[in-house]
Amino acid sequence: VGNSQVLTCTRKSNVAMVTWKINPKVGGPCTLGYRADQNKTDRTNCSDSMNWKFRPDRDPALEIRQVGIAHEGNYTCEVVATDGNFHDVYYLTVLVPPRLTLYCDDHGNPVCEAAAGKPAAQVLWVLGSNFTPEEEGHDNGTVTVLSRLTAYGTNLTNTTCIVSHPAGNQSKSIAC
């Protein structure tokens, strides 16, 4: 999320037409088209964040700027050339790194929160095995994972929470 993504498309000489057909999971479909005989591009229902990376007659790659969760979905590039029709199909999955927060609750137990990640993060504790992770799903497809380490009267001088996620791992330590 937040980065730019370029989806490549088959490069051919003698291209007659190139079409990107985009079907996101959220919102309606959009298309980007190019006709060589008129040297004309056209767009239907596409946001400004999606456009040709370069000139479509030279390189038909699609660039998505500031990728968001709404961009997740199917992307198909169709190239019509003198030597045939060519298709490139992608499914764009958007990863959202969670926000890591570590604090002590009212009972002196460390609580680790991996907020609004996509997919849900895995929360683990260094030198701690008695914890209960809870997941809360959000409307935008992200998930918050909350894990409370129960010490049962043991004084945890320094506890480390590790958050494992496809967008990157994080860790924080705290003394409660």
From TrEMBL:
GO terms for cellular component: external side of plasma membrane. One of its GO terms (biological process) is regulation of neuroinflammatory response. The keyword Disulfide bond applies. It is a single-pass membrane protein. It holds the Pfam family V-set. One of its GO terms (molecular function) is signaling receptor activity. Keywords: Disulfide bond, Glycoprotein, Membrane, Transmembrane, Transmembrane helix. It is found in: Membrane. Residues 1-93 form the Ig-like domain. InterPro entries: CD200R (IPR040012), Ig-like_dom (IPR007110), Ig-like_dom_sf (IPR036179), Ig-like_fold (IPR013783), Ig_V-set (IPR013106). SUPFAM superfamilies: Immunoglobulin. The keyword Disulfide bond applies. Belongs to the CD200R family. This is MOR1B protein. The gene is Cd200r1b_1.
